[in-house]
């Protein structure tokens, strides 16, 4: 069974260095799926200190892979084949929490959803749905 520590180790083992540079941290596991903390960073911010959409999508995609690791109990090679994201409002001045959960996982495809909220105010800033091919 995947623990927060094994999921954190998976970040270093399976993801590109630029993804690791996001500074994602696995939050304590509760319920289903996973929650990652994306620390506030000037490097990931746009004008006015707003978290960039590119950083949110990268964090969402990464969280989905870790949700699949938790779902299957081990890493399975996969690739994102479709991701649809809606940005609801800007996020600035706080960390982001990236919550991903698997909706359904079959033999060749998995479907999930990701909600990104402000860590301080809990307000939703982005919602994504994703389809992954399991290789």
From TrEMBL:
Keyword Oxidoreductase among UniProt keywords = no
**One Pfam family, short name please?**
4HBT
Gene3D superfamilies per record:
Hotdog Thioesterase
Transmembrane spans: none
Ordered alphabetically, the record's keywords are: Hydrolase
Domain Thioesterase, which positions? 49-123
Listed SUPFAM superfamilies = Thioesterase/thiol ester dehydrase-isomerase
Q: Which InterPro entries match?
A: ACOT13, HotDog_dom_sf, Thioestr_dom
Q: At the top level of its lineage, which domain of life is listed? A: Bacteria
What's this protein's name? PaaI family thioesterase
């Amino acid at each position: 069974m995947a623990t927060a520590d094994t999921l954190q180790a998976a970040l270093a083992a399976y993801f590109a260095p630029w993804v690791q540079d996001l500074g994602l941290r696995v939050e304590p596991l509760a319920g289903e799926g996973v929650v990652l903390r994306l620390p506030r960073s000037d490097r990931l911010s746009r004008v006015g200190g707003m978290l960039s959409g590119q950083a949110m999508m990268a964090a969402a995609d990464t969280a989905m892979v870790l949700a699949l690791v938790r779902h299957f109990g081990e890493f399975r090679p996969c690739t994102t084949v479709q991701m649809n994201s809606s940005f609801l409002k800007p996020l600035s001045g706080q960390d982001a929490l990236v919550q991903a959960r698997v909706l359904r996982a079959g033999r060749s495809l998995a479907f999930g959803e990701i909600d990104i909220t402000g860590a301080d105010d809990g307000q939703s800033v982005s919602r994504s749905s994703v389809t992954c091919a399991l290789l």
